[in-house]
Amino acid sequence: MESQLKFKIAIVDDEEIVCKRLKKVLEKEGYEVETFLDGETFLGKMSSHPFHLVILDLKLPKLDGLQVLERIKAISPETEVIMITAYGSIESAVEATKMGAFYYITKPIKLDEFRALVHKAKEKVLLVFENKQLKETLAKYTFTELVGKSLKMQKIYELIIKVAPIDCNVLIQGETGTGKELVAKAIHYHSPRKHAPFVSFNCGSFTEELIASELFGYEKGAFTGATHTKIGLLESANGGTVFLDEIGEMPLSMQVKLLRVIQEKKIIRVGGIKPILLNIRIIAATNRDLKKMVEEGKFREDLYYRLNVVNIVLPPLRERKEDIPLLINHFLNKYNALFGKNVHYVTEKALEKMLNYPFPGNVRELENIIERAVALSEKEEIDIRDLPPDLIAFEVKTEEPPKTSPLEEQEKNYIKKVLEQTGYNKYKTAKILGLSRTTLWRKMKKYGL
C-alpha cells in the first residue's frame, strides 16, 4: 500500500523550534514533511496540495487550531489531524476530536508517543486510500459482495460480465469459502433474468428422496404426510436462475433426473402425471474435481458437459493475498454497521500475520475472523491479540521427518504435514520440500494426497 501513496505530513505550530524538532523526527521515519508557523499560510498550501496528516497546534495567531481544523475537514475530509495542546487546554482538544481530529497530544511532547500516534493515523489514512481504490476498481462492475482487485479476480469479473447476458448453463469450481454463490448471484443479477427469482439449493444436504421432493415438488397424496400440493424449487424459479451448490454430492439416480430436466425443459411433480414446462437457467457449483469423478464413474459424463458450458474457476484466497486488506476493510464496514461498533483498522502486525496465513477456509474464514474481532473489540483497532489462537500460533516450519517408520510412509506423512501447514499450496509445499511441482504432484497422486 505504502508504495502507491507518498505520505505527506504538515506541521502547523507558531514555535519554530517545535516545528524543526518534529520535522526531524518524522523525516527519520521516512515521511515527507512541511512546516508552517501560522494557519493562514498552511491553508493556502492545503487548498492546492492536500496533506494526508496534519500536526496542528491548538493555539495559533489569527486563526486558532479549531478554526483551521474546520477548514481542513472542509477541504479534504480524508485528511487526519493530530492536535497539539498544553495541559490547560485539554477541553478544547477533546472538542477538536468531536470535530473530526484523529487524536490529541499534550506538551511537552513525548517522542515515542508521538511516533506511535502518527503511525496509527497513517494506518487509517492508508486504509481509506485502499478502500477508495477498491471502489474505483469495482465501480464498472457494480458487484457489491465480490471484493478484490487482483489480476485473478479481474479475470473473474470479466468472465461474469461476458457470460451473464448469454442464457447458458455455468459450472463454478473452487474450494470451500471462495465465494461460488456470490459469483452465481452476480451472474444472475447482471443477466436478463435479474427480475425473476434466484433459487439456491445445496445438493449435499438431503437424501435422494428429499432432493426429488424439494426440486420437483409433489402432489397431494403422493406419499404419507403429503397433505397438500407443494411446488418444487425448480418450478418456483421459473423465468429465473437455479443455483445447485455441491453438485458433486448429488446421487447418480438424481443426476439422471436432472439431465432429463435440462434436456426436456420440463418436470413432473412427485406423484403427478402432468408435465410442467420450465424456463430456467442452471448454475452449478462444486469444490470437487468433477472430471475425475466422471473418470471414476461417480458423476455422469453427459450431465457434466450439459452443466459445464462455461467454466469459472475461483482462486483460493492464498493465491490472491493482495486482496486481503481490501476484504478486511469490506468486512470491517459490514460488521461495524451490524454490531454498532467503530473499529477503523487492523494493525500492521495483525495484517502481516493474516498475510502469512494460508486460509484453508478462504474468504469465509477471513470473514469469520473479522466478524469475531469486531464483535469482541472495545477499541478502534484490531491487533494481533484479537486474532484466533490457531492463527496467532500458525507458522510454516520445515522439520526433519520422523525416523521411526518405513521410508515411503515417512515421506507420505511428511508431505501431508507440509501440505496442511501451507493450506495445500503446492507451490509453497514444493519449495519447502525442495521438489519440482511436477514431482510433488506425482508423489501426491502416488500417496493419495
From TrEMBL:
UniProt GO BP: phosphorelay signal transduction system; regulation of DNA-templated transcription
One Pfam family of this protein, by short name?
Response_reg
Using the record's annotation, list all stretches that form the Sigma-54 factor interaction domain. Answer: 146-375
Xref: Gene3D superfamilies: 1.10.8.60, 3.40.50.2300, Homeodomain-like, P-loop containing nucleotide triphosphate hydrolases
Sites where 4-aspartylphosphate occurs are at D57
Q: What range(s) does the Response regulatory domain occupy?
A: 8-122
Alphabetized UniProt keyword annotations: ATP-binding, DNA-binding, Nucleotide-binding, Phosphoprotein, Transcription, Transcription regulation
SUPFAM superfamilies in the record: CheY-like, Homeodomain-like, P-loop containing nucleoside triphosphate hydrolases
Q: Does the keyword Metal-binding apply?
A: no
What the entry lists under PROSITE patterns is as follows: RESPONSE_REGULATORY, SIGMA54_INTERACT_1, SIGMA54_INTERACT_2, SIGMA54_INTERACT_3, SIGMA54_INTERACT_4
UniProt signal peptide = none
Domain of life of the native organism: Bacteria
Keyword Transcription set for record = yes
Which GO terms of the molecular function aspect are on file?
ATP binding; sequence-specific DNA binding
PANTHER family, from UniProt? SIGMA L-DEPENDENT TRANSCRIPTIONAL REGULATOR YPLP-RELATED, TRANSCRIPTIONAL REGULATORY PROTEIN
Query: What is the recorded name of this protein?
Result: Sigma-54-dependent Fis family transcriptional regulator
The species is Desulfofervidus auxilii
